[in-house]
Design brief:
The chain has 665 residues and is an alpha/beta fold. The chain has helices spanning 40-60, 66-72, 137-148, 151-157, 161-164, 174-183, 187-207, 213-259, 267-294, 298-302, 314-340, 347-361, 365-368, 378-390, 393-424, 429-476, 484-525, 562-579, 597-611, 628-634; strands at 3-12, 15-22, 29-33, 85-94, 98-108, 116-124, 127-128, 158-160, 532-537, 544-548, 586-589, 615-619, 638-648, 651-656. A hairpin with a 2-residue loop joins strand 13 and strand 14. The longest helix has 48 residues, at 429-476.
């Protein structure tokens, strides 16, 4: 097992001078306590920067400039130094590498002398890493740390409790999948897949003529980018469809409640309720009409396509294009006649005739006809005319205008009835239902528009990928099918297929352990755990589905509260730690953020002591106050107790301390 033994911080923010923070000793839970704003998050930053430097900074401080930030982070109470610098050092013990020290220093020099300069040193048992011949020291050291504690893992095990409340369990992105794969020892397969992709691209590049290399490379890059966008669009459509179904179900429930309201209510309210339901239904119908136009004729109208193509001189363009086609055929015929003459026409005479003929037919359609359609080919113009007729563009502008006017009228009437209903039923549940129904309808409309937009984008990207793949095939067709390079490419493709098959099977074997560990973690955290009926983890995407008693569908599709999202995020962390084959310490800042007293108690006494073999908690007085510190102590899992306290307006110190007083015990 890997243990963090100490962290050293020098001249970073309020940590002036050299600060040594022991991290292990006694029980498995180390508590570092501090009031808000004193230095907890600074300690978490120090862990991140020590391990991964600028790379992790970009994620934690999006949009900030590192050099400017690190200059501003230099302690204003540090002793005067000839060469100002900020330094971090993390010492750890590892079963393979024994005692490891990772030290990262940022020299803060004037821009004329090089500006911010980074120095990274790793030692094993006091000896520096041995470099291979030709290796760059910084690159090699970064790669060594990445192999020991990969960045995707650090993202999961150095946890900001406040940010967990923003965790979306239904948005398992590629970054999170990468980190889970790495933890479950599938990450090596991903690295091998990437390596094979690189070899395949280089092999294909060698197979084609040299003058096609750049074109092929651009096509391969574009295809890869489009495939990533397709995956993102599919995920977005799936998520939006799920949200749409939930909202539609709620709208149906609300409409049913409206219909089942007591018939004893006053006639005015009854009439308003009926009118509200009718207008709500009419708006739904109009919304469908608008969505239909958004995906058919409306984009062409917005682009400025006229209701009559003759406004763009379509007949003249078609005639000019047909003439251009005939001119090409006539030129070919003329050449064939010259070739068949016997005796042949003199060279000078033939050249004069051909030049004159080319001059006659050289004028383009764009020069002959003034029209935005002049740049199209004859085939493309035919396709446009066909689509124009299919969409009924000659009447589309009037139709769209009528639909929008009708929608605005119905929306105005709906809002009027809704306002009257709310006023007439003020203080009654029906008023709240009316407001909710109106809000849900607006959200539903937005989702439907998003789904329509993403579906159109998806179709466009998939069509583009198909076109690109045909172009790639055309370029590759110029190579020898039986060549060594072709056989090498086929072998790589088979290997990639086998890797994908193995990865899916391996993930499938891990799905059940992940489900069981997630359930165990959730039961340690949430009082809703007694209503938990089933947990399913998708072995391909790690998407999680929770079946809860009393909740139809996936409980995670609900609009979860901040606390519920935090519980889901922590349960996933717990599952990864339990199932993963890498026993890594967990550092968590503000561990019970947003939790009520009961959930805090469960977290402190049941969850965190079981989360890892080493848990380092950065806590405020709220996190372990109200008797929680004493409860943690009674579990006999409490190890080191450290206190960060102010010693001046701009500096702090860390010392071992009995934290009972700090937590009000």
């Amino acid at each position: 097992m890997t243990y963090f033994t100490s962290l050293q911080i020098r001249n970073f923010k309020r940590f002036a001078g050299e600060n040594h923070i022991p991290l292990s000793g006694g029980g498995q839970v180390t508590v570092i306590a501090a009031q808000n704003g004193v230095g907890k998050t600074t300690v978490l930053d120090a862990f991140h920067l020590t391990l991964h430097g600028k790379r992790v900074f970009k994620e934690r401080y999006l949009g900030r400039k590192f050099n400017e930030w690190i200059h501003n982070a230099y302690s204003i109470e540090s002793e005067e130094e000839e060469y100002p610098h900020i330094q971090f050092a993390l010492e750890l013990s590892d079963p393979i590498h024994d005692n490891v020290r990772i030290q990262r220093t940022y020299w803060l020099l004037p821009d004329d002398d090089g500006g911010v300069t980074e120095e990274l040193v790793v030692t094993k048992d006091g000896k520096p890493l041995e470099l291979e011949a030709g290796e760059n020291k910084l690159d090699y050291t970064e790669a060594w740390i990445e192999a020991l504690l990969p960045l995707p893992l650090s993202r999961r095990f150095l946890v900001d409790g406040e940010r967990l409340s923003d965790f979306d369990p239904q948005e398992i992105d590629e970054e999170l999948i990468e980190s889970i794969d790495d933890l479950l020892e599938i990450g090596m397969l991903q690295k091998l897949e990437t390596h094979l992709q690189t070899i395949q691209r280089e092999t294909v590049r060698k197979m084609v003529p040299e003058d096609e290399h750049e074109t092929l490379e651009n096509l391969l890059t574009l295809r890869h980018e489009y495939k990533l966008e397709v995956a993102e669009l599919k995920s977005g459509i799936k998520s939006s469809n799920a949200q749409r179904d939930i909202i539609q179900t709620r709208i149906d429930e609300l409409n049913e409640l409206f219909q089942n309201e007591s018939l004893e209510e006053e006639s005015e309210v009854a009439n308003l309720r009926i009118g509200f339901a009718i207008k709500q239904s009419e708006l739904t119908s109009v919304r469908r009409d608008i969505l239909d136009k958004m995906t058919t004729s409306l984009p062409f109208l917005i682009a400025g396509l006229p209701t009559d193509l003759q406004e763009w001189n379509v007949a003249e363009v078609k005639a000019a294009l047909e003439s251009e086609r005939l001119n090409d055929e006539n030129l070919k015929f003329m050449v064939s006649v010259f070739d068949s003459l016997d005796p042949s026409l003199g060279g000078r005479s033939r050249d004069r005739i051909e030049k004159a003929a080319h001059k006659v037919v050289s004028s383009s359609v764009h020069e002959d006809v003034s029209s935005p359609l002049a740049h199209l080919s004859l085939d493309a113009l035919g396709i446009l005319e066909k689509r124009y007729d299919e969409l009924g563009m000659s009447e589309a502008q009037e139709e769209v205008q009528n639909i929008i006017d009708n929608a605005m009228d119905k929306l105005t009437i709906f809002n009027k009835i809704a306002t009257q209903l709310v006023s007439a039923t003020e203080g009654l549940s029906i008023s709240e239902m009316a407001n909710e129904l109106r809000d849900k309808g607006m959200v539903l409309g937005g989702l439907q528009a998003d789904i329509s937009r993403m579906s159109d984008e998806l179709l466009g990207k998939e069509t583009a990928i198909s076109t690109i793949e045909k172009q790639i095939e055309n370029i590759q067709s110029k190579s020898d099918k039986d060549s060594h390079l072709n056989r090498k490419k086929d072998t790589i493709l088979r290997l990639r297929g086998l890797l994908e098959m193995y990865a899916v099977e391996h993930r499938s074997t891990l799905a059940q352990p992940l489900e069981e560990a997630f359930k165990e973690g959730f039961e340690l955290l949430s009082r809703k755990s007694d209503r938990l009926e089933k947990i399913t983890v998708n072995p391909r995407t790690y998407q999680t589905e929770l079946k809860m008693a009393g909740f139809p569908g996936n409980w995670l599709d609900r609009d979860l509260s901040a606390t519920e999202r935090q519980h889901v995020g922590l349960s996933l962390l717990y599952a990864l730690r339990k199932v993963g084959n890498r026993p890594i310490p967990v550092v968590i800042d503000t561990p019970t953020s947003r939790m009520d007293r009961d959930h805090k108690g469960w977290s402190v006494t049941r969850f965190y002591p079981r989360l890892s073999h080493q848990v380092i908690v950065l806590a405020t007085s709220d996190d372990l106050g109200d008797g929680l510190y004493d409860e943690l102590k009674q579990t006999e899992n409490l190890g080191l107790e450290l206190l960060i306290e102010e010693i001046s307006d701009n500096s702090v110190k860390v010392s071992e301390s009995n934290l009972a007083v700090f937590f009000g015990e």
